[in-house]
Amino acid sequence: MSQTTPLNQLASDFSNTTRPTFILIDGHSLAFRSYFAFARGRDGGLRTKTGIPTSVCFGFLKCLLEVMTEQQPQAIAVAFDLGLPTFRHEADDTYKADRPGTPEDFVPDLKNLHELLDAFNLKILTAPGYEADDVLGTLAQKASAAGYQVKILTGDRDLFQLIDPKKEISVLYFSPDALKRATNTNGISEFGEAEVKEKLGILPSQVIDFKALCGDKSDNIPGVKGIGEKTAVQLLNTYGSLEQIYASLSEIKGATQKKLEAGKEDAEKSRYLAAIVLDVPLDIDLEDCKLKGFDTSVLTPILENLEFKSFLGKINQLQQKFG
Fold first, then answer.
1. Which of 39, 148, 183, 311 has the fewest CB atoms within 10 Å, i.e. is most exposed?
2. Stated pTM of the model
3. In a domain, 240, yes or no
4. pLDDT attached to residue 218
5. Is the pLDDT reported for residue 287 higher than 70?
6. Average pLDDT over residues 261-270
7. What's phi and psi for 77, nearest 5 deg?
8. Which residues form a coiled coil (predicted)?
């Protein structure tokens, strides 16, 4: 059985490719994980001497710089949710309804993160009516078609559905404790088809149908009542897709058949909610995502305000990383 491959090894394995690298970052995923990596500590999170919360900015920047060191990208874009209803909420008003509210100190930290990313001249993208996942899915297709190998940095398994070896689209998946480690890349692994198969028991192309069958509690996607992950994997390994499962319903016996019959409408709705959109109308020129350096006079005051002395001491090295 194959093992999930560490990030630094995969960076070496792909070093012979002629395609430039485009890193897409799941902004809210990395921001929230940065927050919870530090905010639940004994001291209640990272703060400056004046009380400015910095857990999000510190964790995000630390992870970003280490990934850049490993991957040597030529282009980067960061996608964020807008926090407004999307087409999925219009289809199901209970979508993500059970998620807890945003912590109060997360909000100013996220605002400072946007300012920090702007100072680094990194492209930030959002799309009204869509989620960051949809922006990432669309950008992955555009960047691949433009000749890039695409690597999506996220802690969300939903994005495994975007993995496509033929298009050189993979996922840099960070574990829940990755940001607490001395070196983030120790907790980041690059996922292709084999790694998804090992972790979930299915292929990336089956992730949408997997969620259609067993649902996703974190997003309040119902799935088929009574069908768990183990049964979903068995069905997909036998029949290949949700469509073929329902086309072969007469072959499926007992309680599973009855559950599938009763839950067909929920399966179809869940599939709609789980599928990442690949054609979001984005007004974006990929040239704007190329790394082009930054203005030290703009970045330095921000780092000083956040009391990021370790980053301030490496300003010249940072300039080299960012082009």
1. 183
2. 0.91
3. yes
4. 85
5. yes
6. 96
7. -140, 145
8. none
Same domain, 209 and 244: yes
Do 149 and 22 meet the contact criterion of CB atoms below 8 Å apart? yes
pLDDT bucket at 39, cuts 50 / 70 / 90: confident
Q: In the sheet that 5-6 helps form, which strands lie side by side, from edge to edge? A: 5-6, 188-191, 169-174, 149-154, 21-26, 75-79, 123-125
Instruction: List alpha helices for the chain, DSSP H.
Output: 7-13, 27-39, 55-71, 87-91, 106-119, 132-145, 193-200, 207-214, 229-239, 242-247, 254-262, 264-274, 296-305, 309-312, 315-321
Does position 11 have pLDDT exceeding 50, yes or no? Answer: no
- The torsion region of residue 121 among left (phi > 0), alpha (psi -120 to 50) and beta comes to left
CB 135, CB 141: distance < 8 Å: no
Segment 300-305 mean pLDDT: 96
Same domain, 94 and 186: yes
Q: Which domain holds residue 163?
A: 5-200+285-316
Tokens linked to 4: 């999930």
Mean pLDDT score, 257-275: 96
